[in-house]
Amino acid sequence: MNMTLIMTAVVLILLLCVIGAAAYGISRLKRGIREFSRQVFGTDSLKEGFDRVEEEYQETPKSVSAMTGLYLPKIKKDFPQFQYDDMRVRAENVLTSYLMAVSAADQGLLKEGSQELRDQLEMKIIQQKNSGEREHFEKVRIHRTEITDYKKREGRCTVMFQTSLQYRYYVTAETGELVRGSRDREKQTRYNTELVYIQDREKVQDERDLSLGINCPNCGAPISGLGEKVCAYCGTPVVELNLYAWTFHRVTEV
């Protein structure tokens, strides 16, 4: 009987030791977590720290690949009449109106753009209708827009604008139920808006054919350089404004 009591006492003591050690370990772990959170986030609560990081992430604009300083002189050399500030504002207006058109499922809200951009918008709206879902872009705010790329090939000239912006983005079902996204939180993102240089729309049967050769109206010689003002063969002035037009061609989130 005495031996049984002794064994029971030993077991209880061991159990208390284990519980005590576990409690001590948990206490040290909590203290370590608090110290880590305090050092990293400036708060004792790890959850509060992560919430702060998420909030800062939502409020921090995305960076853009700003290559305006590199490409703008080249563009101005090819196209002396190119007005950067005007084109940048136009690019921002096209992007904003494109997002609003998607939100309202109304192609008429798109301010300007090529047939390909309008086809892109139409396809986006059709896809939404077929899926029974609707994308919403609210409180759109532009942070910064820069030229990120400039290319010339086969008679086609492309200027790529990249825009950093924020908006409230969410998707709803036909019933209005929230499918994904948030009605209350901002999303930081980037978009590329492609600007192309093509012949006058009235003189081009298909806007997708952007590789048409340009000839001098006097001698018929090819105008080899985009933006040329004078024919290299006969010296006849070439009126750039009458031959070409800038148009926005595509909008893409990156």
How widely separated are the two ends?
A: 79 Å
Judging from the principal axes of the Cα atoms, what is the shape? elongated
Mean pLDDT across every amino acid position = 82
Structural class: alpha+beta
Query: What share of residues is helical?
Result: 40-55%
- Following the backbone from N to C, one meets helices and strands in this order, namely HHHHHEEEEHE
CATH architecture: Roll
Q: What's the multimeric state? A: single chain
Reported for the largest beta sheet, the result is: 5 strands, antiparallel
Strand content range: 25-35%
Unreliable segments of 5+ consecutive residues: 199-207, 209-213
Question: Could you please say which CATH topology applies here?
Answer: Nuclear Transport Factor 2, Chain: A
Q: What's the CATH class label?
A: Alpha Beta
- Count of discrete alpha- or pi-helical segments spanning 4 or more residues: 6
What is the number of E strands? 5
Explain what the structure shows.
By secondary structure, the protein is α+β, with helices and mostly antiparallel strands. It contains six helices and five strands; from the N terminus they run αααααββββαβ. The model is unreliable at 199-207 and 209-213 (pLDDT under 50).
